[in-house]
Amino acid sequence: MVSKRFNKLLKLEKNLSARSVKELLSEVKKNCTTKFDESIDLSLQINNKQKKGEINLRTIVNMPSGTGKKIKVAVLCDESQKASAQKAGADLVGSDDLIDKIKAGELNFEKLICTPKMMISLSKLGKILGPKGLMPNPKLGTVTDDIEQAVRNAKAGQVEIKNDKDGNIGVSLGKKSFSDDKILSNFNAIIETLIKEKANNSFKGEMIKNIYLTSTMGISYKLKLEKHF
């Protein structure tokens, strides 16, 4: 059942044309009428159905303004690197003991960082970690010997961009309480990353079909892209 609050928002949006993110941000924030600090979210649909097969994007973006979310980070490393991981802010640090916990189904973390050496043992747990999106990946910076930097990046608001089978991508730009400048800096970081990914993945034609801006409990506004994709 649609609430009166949401119906009212739909009426306001009905006849609006696509506009720039700068123009729409104030509208989206105005719709954040709930009692909690809503997320400002970006939804995109990419043209991943290409003549030579399907293209799947999977990359990371270091959000310059963070996301406003606290991420619980686990690190799998040997004894010599445990102190560095803890110093950088890791919530869980272990080696074989952490592997045993994962085997037992204890996945009380949102990101797992692993050294290349420990990946040999961890690779056997793909059936547990894979479906949860927790398996470390060198391309995503989660398999590395630079544990300190990887943990700092994760804690600072590094996000993963990945499309589903229909080409849809969803990513948070921050919270309603963020200043417009902070949200816009995160938006620009995502756009710049997508531009690079288009070149790297040899997209034919337009890469982005549609792009929308919304809040957790608000409605979607279609964005007009200022940069060519």
What is the CA-atom radius of gyration, in angstroms?
20 Å
Number of strands: 11
Separation, N- and C-terminal Cα atoms: 38 Å
Residue stretches low in confidence (pLDDT < 50, at least 5 long) are: none
Describe the structure.
The structure is a single chain. By secondary structure, this protein is of the alpha+beta class. The protein folds into two domains: 18-67 and 158-222, Ribulose 1,5 Bisphosphate Carboxylase/Oxygenase (2-Layer Sandwich), CATH 3.30.190.20; 73-156, 3-Layer(aba) Sandwich (Rossmann fold), CATH 3.40.50.790. Helices cover 33% and strands 22% of the residues. It has eight helices and eleven strands. The strands form four sheets. Strands 9-1-10-11 form a four-stranded antiparallel sheet. The chain has a three-stranded parallel sheet with strand order 6-5-7, sandwiched between helices. The chain is globular. 28% of the residues are buried.
List the topology elements.
Elements: H1 4-13, H2 21-30, E1 39-46, E2 49-50, E3 53-54, E4 58-62, E5 73-76, H3 82-88, E6 92-94, H4 96-103, E7 111-114, H5 119-122, H6 126-129, H7 147-156, E8 158-162, E9 168-175, H8 180-201, E10 208-215, E11 221-222
Parallel strand pairs: 5-6, 5-7
Antiparallel strand pairs: 1-9, 1-10, 2-3, 4-8, 10-11
Helix pairs in contact: 3-7
